[in-house]
Amino acid sequence: MSTSPSRSLLMDHESIDGQDGFWLPFGYYLERDADLLILRRSDDSLVAAFSAEGVDLFEVELAVWADAD
């Protein structure tokens, strides 16, 4: 399942590894498949990839902040 930039960036009706949704800043979205959670910019370029199993949403947030610098 993937999210697109046109979809709300609040993933409030889904959970990732049992964790409730969270906000992504404008210009970022998550793409998810069975094995990976991929953080992308709105131009589809890759920011970071995480194992879909046991992903820590704090690590996703850190990747966004690091990319924004």
Number of domains: 1
Mean pLDDT: 75
Strand order of the largest sheet: 1-2-3
Beta content comes to 15-25%
Radius of gyration: 11 Å
* Gross morphology: globular
User: What summary fits the major beta sheet?
Assistant: 3 strands, antiparallel
Q: How many strands in all?
A: 3
Distance between the termini: 28 Å
Poorly predicted segments: 1-15
Total helical elements: 1
Which structural class do you get from the secondary structure elements?
alpha+beta
- Approximately how much helix is present in the residues? 10-25%
What is the H/E order? EEEH
Task: Present the secondary structure layout.
Blueprint: E1 28-32, E2 36-41, E3 46-51, H1 57-68
Antiparallel strand pairs: 1-2, 2-3
Question: Could you characterize what this model shows?
Answer:
This protein is of the alpha+beta class and 69 residues long. The chain has one domain. Helix content is 17%, strand content 25%. Strands 1-2-3 form a three-stranded antiparallel sheet, with helices on one face. Strand 1 and strand 2 form a beta hairpin. The chain is globular and about 25 Å long.
Kindly list the characteristics that best describe this protein.
about 70 residues, alpha+beta, 3-stranded antiparallel beta sheet, 1 helix, globular, disordered N terminus
Brief account:
The chain has 1 helix and 3 strands, in the order βββα. The chain has 69 residues and is of the alpha+beta class.
